[in-house]
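For reproducibility, we list the full input for the magnesium ion complex.
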Amino acid sequence: MKLDSKAMRHLTSEDWRVLTAVEIGSKNHEVVPTPLIESIAKLRGGPSRTRKSISALAKVGLIARLKEARYDGYRLTYGGMDYLALHTHASQGRVYSVGDRVGVGKESDITVVADDQGQQKVLKIHRLGRVSFRTVKANRDYLRRRQGGSWMYLSRLAAEREYAFMCALREEGFLVPEPIAQNRHTVLMEYVDAFPLRQISQVPDPAALYAELIAAILRLAQHGLIHGDFNEFNILIKEEEEEIREEEAKEPGSNHNNGEKAPATTTVTKVTPVIIDFPQMVSMDHANAEMYFDRDVACVKRFFERRFHFVSTTAGPFFRDAKKSVGKDGARRLDAAVEASGFSKRALKDLEAAIFEQQGSRGEGAEGDGDDDEDEEDDDEDEEEEGEEDDDESGEGEAEAEEKEGREMKQTTAEY
Ligand code: ADP
Ligand code: MG
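The corresponding predicted structure, in tokenized form, follows.
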């Protein structure tokens, strides 16, 4: 589903408060009872004002009423959570405008956004658990027992984990997009002006690029990590034209120019791989680490053979050797560093299960190939439009009181 920011500017501050209230209520309720929304939002206009906002939000699809719910209530939609995240990024001055969607995966939407300087960035919106949510919806008992199954929680977890890995990898000097911020189910990052390897028909030196990618897998392993989805969609290829002096091209290191004439130059294409897509990364200590490691290596080998007819003369690399290298040469264990930064074992299990389920549903190697538009609005299928209107608007409040409420609200949201 697309990030749609059109309705954003039409929302009043009351609407925002009500939307935030539904989000807060969602922490403990799949469907947030209307009276609870009212009591969290505490609008000065009272229940009638809240209902007016509820109508406005439901109309533009930011919240939805579930038909079969046993009580009157609403849930936040993906669109609603997108808005809240976008609003936060905007209020922090990081996002000013929203551009086109550049990538669609089963797990995410990738949208180009810009700050007020016109600097382009990428907003990755995680859509994890969409499949799980549908399964879960069929079994409400399951959901009542375990809030952990919900898409909101899983998508946020995926974003948090991806951001944590990106920060750690960047710190260690890996070529990954610069992580800028994370909020709810979104990660804001540097826009990399490059095509995925999948779309590259030829490179100047396939052997060199292959060696670089295998080296990246081994370096990750040294830091205790396996990418887990190291395929041609998740490797962006930056191509830069570089002018080098001809003598330098022949004889690297020589930088003299004794002649009068300007040195002859030649243009070479410099190819740099940038790795993306990290929520599924696994530790080298994971029970299935060998399978994940071998799969990443095989992915690169298979692609290079098919696309560039390049087959490495050396076998491997092998998991057992990579395993021995973990933590060597002073490499910091990034798996431990990220896992220690607040992800419970339970949360990781939930996330892993959801990623596994979603990868399974898209089929091996099918990532990004298909258009998942048919999936759009799937989880809205049993929702009804909110039709009630209540125009009773009373008691527009004093600015001071509003501001205080705003602060309280912010606190509550931050806790969540
Ligand atoms: P998913 O988890 O859905 O596979 P990815 O992070 O792999 O999401 O992104 C999907 C696609 O979006 C990529 O294949 C790439 O084309 C594009 N993309 C993702 N991140 C960036 C970025 N930082 N800069 C430019 N393009 C990007
Ligand atoms: Mg991907």
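The longest strand covers residues 235-245. Confidence is low (pLDDT under 50) at residues 131-149, 364-416. Both points were considered when choosing residues for closer inspection.
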